[in-house]
Task: inverse folding
């Protein structure tokens, strides 16, 4: 994003808000011994979450995510979003993306309403970025999504400030919707967070299903099955199976 966008955003929300938007560290690789121990746990097998996309017939909207060569100094960058306008019921959802390897160039996040030019949120993450799955939780800001309004969100690696055409950019779309009554009933009857994540996926609420799965992984870092289930969800929308234990997935 250009510098004037950042000036507009700062005037709207104040510099103090930018200081509150911090990246969540990437998920670390799990030692093989811990993964083996997790596999030996005698827990019932969990069903694979099945994502049912909303039936809207919209054109493809996801941008970026091309695999880069081993000699390229910049990583591959993927937004963890489907190739259509995906849904959330949360006023302040979680946005997630993936870097295939560490980078030391400037990194930006931006959130833009489809019907406006200036971002409602833009954040500069600086120049130190670890690999793996990263996220920005909108609850760390005072920004909320308007119901029924599509937003584009993007992440960008900026290797040269004077030549922005060389940026590595990935973007997706999000729209907040009202909680469907049948989904609300399923959530209230679900026994645990994994069942709730399954319910979100089946109802086509992508961002909330993915966020709940990722939160379960952070709470249970040695659970290889959870990572495999999330990877299965990602591959259903054409994304690489990132976040598996002991794999870089470049």
Result:
């Amino acid at each position: 994003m250009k510098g004037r966008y950042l000036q507009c955003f700062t005037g709207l929300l104040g510099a103090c808000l930018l200081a509150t938007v911090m990246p969540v560290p990437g998920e670390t690789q799990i030692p093989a011994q811990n993964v083996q121990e997790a596999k030996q746990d005698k827990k019932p097998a969990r069903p694979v979450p099945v994502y049912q996309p909303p039936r809207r017939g919209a054109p493809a909207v996801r941008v970026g995510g091309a695999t880069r060569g081993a000699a390229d100094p910049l990583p591959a960058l993927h937004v963890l979003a489907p190739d259509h306008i995906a849904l959330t019921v949360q006023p302040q959802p979680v946005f997630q993306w993936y870097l295939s390897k560490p980078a030391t160039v400037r990194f930006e996040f931006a959130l833009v309403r489809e019907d406006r030019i200036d971002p409602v949120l833009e954040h500069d993450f600086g120049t130190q970025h670890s690999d793996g799955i990263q996220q920005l939780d909108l609850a760390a800001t005072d920004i909320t999504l308007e119901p029924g309004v599509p937003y584009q969100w993007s992440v960008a690696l900026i290797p040269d400030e004077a030549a922005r055409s060389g940026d590595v950019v990935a973007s997706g779309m999000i729209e907040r919707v009202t909680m469907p009554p049948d989904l609300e009933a399923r959530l209230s009857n679900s026994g645990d967070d994994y069942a709730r994540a399954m319910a979100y996926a089946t109802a086509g609420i992508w961002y909330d299903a993915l966020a709940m799965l990722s939160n379960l992984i952070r709470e249970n870092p040695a659970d290889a099955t959870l990572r495999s289930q999330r990877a299965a969800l990602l591959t259903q929308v054409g994304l690489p199976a990132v976040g598996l234990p002991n794999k870089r997935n470049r």
